[in-house]
Design a protein that fits this description.
This protein has 129 residues and is an all-beta fold. It is built from no helices and ten strands. The radius of gyration is 16 Å and the shape is globular. It starts with 6 loop residues before the first strand and ends in a 9-residue tail after the last strand.
Amino acid sequence: MPELEVSHNHPRFARLSQRLAYVAESEQGADLWLVDMNDPSQRENLTGGRVQRPEWPRWSPDDRQIAFTALDEAGDAGRENSKIVVLTLATGALRQVTHDDALDRQPSWSPDGESLLYSSARDCASNDP
């Protein structure tokens, strides 16, 4: 098996097809990619530099959308925030779901595909003495 030329992370198979979403990192940054396992030579860059550091891709129950975590560029200086983004595969459109100054990560779809559950550090006040 040949070695991969760049780092590949966060693989996730679609529920209803032989497609795989994953994050590939290169010198230009990280992007979310799609490959059809029936023809692995055909890969598609889904984000094309439109988001920073995508992670944790999760397929919607109907395989039409992928929710994932991305770095939020609007965060306070010196503090990294992440957001939840949904990509619609038919159009390539990205929709930011969370809009706060918190670490929002690891999305998960509800069984009906109507809602997203995710981990968040919002409303977590520090109680350090």
